[in-house]
Amino acid sequence: MEAYRRSDAVEVTALCDADPKRGGEAAATCGAAAYTDHRDMLAAEPLDIVCILTPPASRLRIVADVAAAGHAILVEKPMATTRADAEEMRRLCDAAGVPLSYGASYRHLPALKQARALIAEGAIGDVILLREDFIGGRGPASRAALPPWHYPEGGIGGTGMGLVDHGVHLIDAFAWLADSPVSWASGRGNRSGNALETEYAILGLANGATGHLLYEDGTWPTQLPAEGQFSWGASWDADGYHPGGTWQTHPGSIHVHGTHGALRIFHYAHALYLTDAEGTRQIALDGDPAPDHFRVQIDAFAAELRSGTLPGTGADAGITALAVLEAIYASAGRNVAIESQT
């Protein structure tokens, strides 16, 4: 909401939330009409874009209603809880002639955008490894899985900083940064309703690079205070939400290693470092830190609608991310035991 209020391209005119108190308070911040049923909002309001930010399990039925009403759609990540549901969303929107944009918001963070430009220029040579992890928390009791109305029991799930709800960003971002799709994947992810475990994924990109993800927010961090970073942007990590403008002991970061150098991308802290044979130096960034990337994202979609062009990040990106997640989950049942040699 803060980011959308900054936009000169769109105006928030209506908002729907099942919780009338929360919805009313949010709507009041921008003078919007408040609803508790999206169908009532669709019937009453002359809308151009509907942004679907609800839990993933609810999105297919809402997309169906919005597409039938003829409005453009921006759907948050992950697009759905299954690849099949995401493909049905695409089919519904195509049949209705409705543009569908996928909220791959990391593509609009200044640090990632600049890192991608440097990689394309050859600043670190050929990309050979991309990695990210979130390890920390305050012990097992400090974490909680997202509820079944978010991720239905038995399917993909876990915590807000786990492989699904957070890692889906990186699955998309790794391929985008390296300009190469993921061609194979393996690992282990938490299932909704099951005991929480450490999650990981190994991704093989078509260009030969490897992606590595590792998530565990039910332990304690090992970073020392001096290893942190001043965070200019609002951010989320294993300890929860940080409003920005403060020191973070262990801010989130993405590492990209190449044949001639490496990048450390503090995506929310709004900082980028390049290391090569000449040493380590900080790279200047254009644009504002999070949450402004949400403004950039909605502005880009509005511009696409005005020009009649297809969304730059369409349904295919969301479907691909879910396909990779499903491959990771499928691989977990094929772990090979190592027999004792004694």
UniProtKB/TrEMBL annotation:
This is Gfo/Idh/MocA family protein. The lineage of its organism: Bacteria, Pseudomonadati, Pseudomonadota, Alphaproteobacteria, Sphingomonadales. Residues 113-262 form the GFO/IDH/MocA-like oxidoreductase domain. It comes from the Bacteria. PANTHER family: BCDNA.GH03377. Keywords: Oxidoreductase. Residues 3-103 form the Gfo/Idh/MocA-like oxidoreductase N-terminal domain. It comes from Sphingosinicella xenopeptidilytica.
